[in-house]
Amino acid sequence: MKIIFMGTPDFAVPSLRALTAAGHDIIAVYSQPPRRAGRGKALTPTPVHVAAEAMGVPVFTPVSLKGAEEQVAFAAHGADVAVVAAYGLILPKAVLDAPKHGCINVHASLLPRWRGAAPIQRAILAGDPETGVTIMQMEAGLDTGPMLADVRTSVAGKTAGALTEELAVLGAELLVRVLANLPAHPPMPQPEDGVTYAAKIDKAEARLDFLISAPQVERQIRAFHPTAYFELNGERVRVLAAEVVAPDYAPAPPATTLDAQLTIACNPGAIRPTLVQRAGSRAMPTPEFLRGFAIPAGTKLG
Known about the structure:
By secondary structure, the chain is an alpha/beta fold. It has two domains: 2-198, Rossmann fold; 203-292, Roll (Methionyl-tRNA Fmet Formyltransferase, Chain A, domain 2). Helices cover 25% and strands 26% of the residues. The chain is built from eight helices and 16 strands. The chain has helices at residues 13-21, 47-55, 68-75, 93-97, 119-125, 160-180, 214-223, 286-292; strands spanning 2-7, 25-30, 35-37, 42-44, 59-60, 81-85, 103-107, 115-116, 130-137, 147-154, 197-198, 229-232, 235-246, 264-265, 270-278, 284-285. It has a seven-stranded mixed β-sheet with strand order 5-2-1-6-7-9-10. Strands 12, 13, 14, 15 and 16 form a five-stranded antiparallel β-sheet that branches. A two-stranded antiparallel sheet has the order 3-4. Helix 1 (13-21) packs parallel to helix 6 and helix 5 (119-125) packs antiparallel against helix 7. The chain starts with a strand and ends in a 10-residue tail after the last helix.
């Protein structure tokens, strides 16, 4: 098939590569424009942009697809289908309707649960036992289109990064199977029950909230890995992994250390970080960290 691929982050790269390996003709790739990143603030192309250029596929990076000129150019590709994977721009109806078979989305949740921008993190935060990828026929609404297929996996114990990598591979494999035989995957309307929305992540959410339960804090650490943190004397300490040591009871106010091993009271329960990192330092197991940065019992964390 002649395919336009539309994606931006690392999550989308396995789908792009899988389509090429399956023998499809990727006639154009659309990705978000390069952004300034790093200490030098150099313009940096997206992961999909980099992968497409390495494959020799022409890349287009419009700021928007709302203009008539961009929509005419998109339709002129003459694609059989457009595949969208975490592209990040709204597709107007003229774009959705341009390819012969419309636009198909690789969405990292089990729709209709977690429509929207951050389904992987929201699934972890909510304590969902499983999540997955849904291949969906796109329409004008936010992830509301009929479903073609899905695949499932367990959430238990996984960080957002690890789960993203797993779902990227599962989604790529499922996408190839769907496109190999579209008539075998008739669109199924999404159920009206069970709709939830995955709001975009705010950087402030990475600050650990010890006013919630210990299991919820542990999920927060996995959802925002590797940026979850607490503050001590104005310094940020990242928590890269932790264990729940008391899910229901802690004999101290929330955010207070219960011992010299960095066990922290929550509301209710307690957690103990097992892997931490100070600014400008390497990640290290908590006992090693505490040998050079003692935090006594009764310390109040921010």
